[in-house]
Amino acid sequence: MQLFIDSADVAELRAAAASGLIDGVTTNPSLIAKSGRKMKEAIAEICAIIPGPVSAEAVATDVEGMLAEGRYLARIAPNVVVKLPLTENGLRACRTLSDEGIRVNVTLCFSAVQALLAAKAGAYFISPFIGRLDDKGVDGMELIREIRCIYDNYEYQTNILSASIRSVDHVRLAALAGSDCATLPPKIFAALYKHELTDSGVEAFLKDWASTGQSIL
Ligand code: G3P
Question: pTM of whole model > 0.85?
Answer without folding.
Answer: yes
